[in-house]
Amino acid sequence: QVQLVESGGGLVQAGDALRLSCAASGRTFSIDRMGWVRQSPGKEREFVAGISWGGAREDYADSVEGRFTISRDNAKNTVYVQMNSLEPEDTAVYYCAAAATLSGVYNYWGQGTQVTVSS
């Protein structure tokens, strides 16, 4: 099993920046990829960004491309997402997720951290 704990959420104003962190523990050697997914009230869960654990491949949703940057620190088993130029539409609960090798899907999820962007 892999445990994920997010931190860094909060209330900010439009245009501000925020960095979320996700610390992984447990069977971290089984992780192939990690990412961030968000969900706003009344909306479906939305992929935000993903990064391969061993390599440098990054993927972003069109809605955050150019504003968000995902990164990882393998030594700390931690993934980050730097969120710049935040917009009210970015308000959501942000979940960290991890995919086990060869699974093709996110198998593990954190508890989520709230990000609220006021206009």
Shape category: globular
What is the helical fraction, as a range of percent?
under 10%
Please indicate the percent range of residues in DSSP E strands (runs of 2 or more): over 45%
Q: Mean pLDDT, as a whole number?
A: 94
Secondary-structure element pattern, one letter each: EEEEEEEEEEE
Unreliable parts: none
- CA-CA gap between termini: 40 Å
What class do helices, strands and sheet pairing give? mainly beta
Computed over alpha carbons, the radius of gyration is 13 Å
Number of contiguous helices: 0
How many strand elements?
11
Largest sheet: 7 strands, mixed
Short précis:
The protein is mostly beta strands and 119 residues long. The protein contains no helices and eleven strands.
Explain this structure:
The protein is an all-beta fold. Helices cover 0% and strands 56% of the residues. It is built from no helices and 11 strands. It has strands at residues 2-7, 10-13, 18-26, 31-39, 46-52, 58-60, 68-73, 78-83, 92-100, 108-109, 113-118. Strand 9 (92-100) and strand 10 (108-109) form a beta hairpin. The protein is globular.
